[in-house]
Amino acid sequence: MLSILRKARLKDKEMRILMLGLDNAGKTTIVKRIMGEDVNTVSPTLGFIIKTIEYEGYKLNIWDVGGQKTLRSYWRNYFEKTDALIWVVDATDRLRIDDCREELHGLLQEERLSGACLLVFANKTDVNGCMDPEEIREGLQLNAIKTHQWHIIRCSAIASTNLQEGLAWVVQDAKNRLFLF
Ligand SMILES: Nc1nc2c(ncn2[C@@H]2O[C@H](COP(=O)(O)OP(=O)(O)O)[C@@H](O)[C@H]2O)c(=O)[nH]1
Ligand SMILES: [Mg+2]
Question: Pick from 89, 142, 92: which is nearest to 117 by CA?
Fold first, then answer.
């Protein structure tokens, strides 16, 4: 049933993308950069922000939800009808990679996210000495994920690198899974 609804929406060329990750990972900055907004005025997200962008004829509704520990229990309110999960990781934050892994694997247990693909954005890779995607893949134990299509890509919201490539993967994966071209 859900997948029928998804297909119907995809036919309307509309996708729902949930942007999650620990606080300070750069979620809001990524969204602002994609929207072409000023990235110098980002403040911590307390609730959620929905932004709609056009991408290759698709309407992407991106939900940017606050990631502070106190807010994470609210994440579940946003799971319904999610086509893609974008998990943003701060590649400079080695100290919280374990916390990051636990939150991610916990999320993937969620029934309502079972139809979503997973893009991991290794953000802040403009910073010297940050973790490379390989280190993050191990830190997050991505290889253990068998329930979702996943892909990791390095990016920088500040340097504006690879954000479009990430979206391209998300859109392509959704199209492939739903057999609509
Ligand atoms: N160096 C660097 N800093 C970034 C990047 N993306 C975000 N930041 C900074 O990280 C901090 C947290 O960003 P924010 O978007 O609020 O994170 P959120 O809590 O995940 O929404 C801000 O000071 C951003 O300027 C990046 O690609 N490179
Ligand atoms: Mg934010």
Answer: 142
Furthest C-alpha separation in the chain? 47
Is residue 175 annotated as involved in ligand binding?
no
Ligand-binding annotation for 25, yes or no, is yes
- CATH fold label, 2-177: Rossmann fold (3.40.50)
Task: Classify residue 112 by its DSSP letter.
Answer: G
CA distances in angstroms from 91 to 9, 122, 139, 157, 166, listed in the order given: 34, 6, 11, 12, 16
Alpha carbons 99 and 87: distance in angstroms, whole number: 13
d(CA 96, CA 99) in angstroms, rounded, equals 5
**pLDDT value at residue 109:** 95
Q: What are phi and psi of 53, to 5 degrees?
A: -125, 155
Asked about 68 being catalytic, the answer comes back as yes
CA of 24 relative to ligand 1 center, distance in Å: 6
| Sign of the CA dihedral with 104 first, then 107, 109, and 113 last | negative
Question: Could you count the other beta carbons within 10 Å of the beta carbon of residue 33?
Answer: 21
What lies within 8 Å, CB to CB, of 8 at 6+ separation is none
Q: How confident is the chain (181 residues) per 10-residue block, as mean pLDDT?
A: 63 88 96 92 84 90 89 86 95 98 96 93 98 98 96 98 96 77 46
